[in-house]
Amino acid sequence: SPSPAPPSPLPRRPPSTRRLSARWRQPRQMPADMDGDQSNMSVGTNGGPQRQGTILDRAGTHLQRAGSNLGLQRASTLPTEDRELRHAATMPITHDVESIRPCCCGLWKLQQMVGFILATGLLLIMCIVRPMKAYPYANDMLGITLLCGIFWVFEVVPIYITSLAPVILMPLFGITSSEIAAQAYWNMIQMLVIGTYLVDIALEEVHLPRRAALKLLLTVGVVQPGVLLFMFMILCWALSMFCNNIAVTLMVTPFAIEILNAAEEQARDEAAAACETTDSDEDVVMDASTKEVQRFSSGVMLGIAYASTCGGLATLTGTVVNEVLYGVGEVTSQVTFAKWFEYAFPTSLVSVVIAYLILWLRYCRGLQLRHLTREVLETEYEELVKEIGPFSRDELFVGLIQIVQFVLLFLRPELDKWMGKTFTNPATGKSFTEKLLGDPTLACLPASLLFFIPSTVRPGQALLTWPAVHEKFDFGLLLLIGG
């Protein structure tokens, strides 16, 4: 019997009925697994035993067997996850990256550009003309509502990011405070987490921490265990003040493991070469060569964890624990981002210094580490450049947005004085100022810009895409904060 054809890399189009009929008119032997009763009987149109069933039945059996191997025949360009199909179904314009996008540096289609102009135009008209004289803020709220509706219909940005517009715009227009607007979503602390995590994901997408770490190590140039440990720890400590310390650990650890694995591989190669030229026991030499690298690796892994924890102490957004504490009403009313930084930064600095000294004494003292050379770092940087290219505009913009977010959160007390809404109590004649701008607005505003700035590395996409957010955002953190 003929052997079945090997599966093609792409799913085949079913042949027509005419071709199937002609094929089955030719005498042939049937495979045993296609017919249990007369598996080896000749099939023809004139004389001889005939298989039961119609031509289409037999063709359907063939197609059914092919269908069972669709997992092997699936094209690499097709969506492979249910969530990708759901994203493409709910936002077809955003995910259709192969279509012509003549607007906004190749980011938007004409339809999206029309929606952006129409939405912002109506918002400006509502704010300038103000048709409802009796209720001034109703004009602003109507403009925000129209903007959200048009953005949703025209899919200017992912529909989920459009949903952040009210919590950003309502405090900016003086309609209500960030705390009240955030209650429609979760609460102000969870919205603060979302805003900061979106920027953290963008940093990971453009590999900015990885490039910064390699450039820092190559600039220092001294490949000593103590210096390398200090560089890793100071990088994680500094990043954790801007980003969530969990995200920093997840970003830096894989990169550190790559460097340490390269050093261990080089140690094994040198040990094998030494055994070829001498009569030494290969296992003994290799064990001695890799033991130093493994000892240093333990110190680096602990250093990344300790430094990220110490850096997260310094700011309210550095770790989830601080954000949970900030959600307590009495703390929220008295502690600002700047006040917390003023108190916690010295504690954070002393903590990371003590952690470094302990790790140096335990894992780096007396260690030579000949196999972790500058050549290893240069090789890693060359592989990085091959993978993502030279320093791009995407990395620059994401880094600037991270800095802007940090500065806005730091300067919130001054912004409250500028954007506050003053009320006068008619009974007492005393006036008080309501704080409109809160941390959720100041965190989500820079984060939303990531979806409006076109990427130069991925034409037709923004700096941050929703599939990347859906894949890397730990929504369980929101439940953790509530718990």
Instruction: Give the beta-strand count.
Output: 4
Any low-confidence stretches, pLDDT <50, length ≥5? 6-52, 65-80
Strand portion: under 5%
* Count of folded domains: 3
Order of helices and strands: HEEHHHHHHHHHHHHHHHHHHHHEEHHH
Nearest-angstrom radius of gyration? 31 Å
Output the structural class.
mainly alpha
**In percent, how helical is the residue content?**
55-70%
Biased composition (Polar residues): 37-53
Pfam families: Na_sulph_symp
InterPro entries: SLC13A/DASS
Biased composition (Pro residues): 1-14
What does the model show?
The protein has 483 residues and is mainly alpha-helical. The protein folds into 3 domains: 57 residues, no CATH class; 86 residues, no CATH class; 295 residues, no CATH class. It is 65% helix and 2% strand. It is built from 24 helices and 4 strands. The strands form 2 sheets. Strands 1-2 form a two-stranded antiparallel sheet. Strands 3-4 form a two-stranded antiparallel ribbon. Helix 13 packs antiparallel against helix 14 and helix 20 runs antiparallel to helix 22. The chain is flat, with a radius of gyration of 31 Å. The protein starts with 16 loop residues before the first helix and ends with a helix. This is Citrate transporter-like domain-containing protein. It is found in: Membrane. Keywords: Membrane, Transmembrane, Transmembrane helix. It is a multi-pass membrane protein. InterPro entries: SLC13A/DASS.
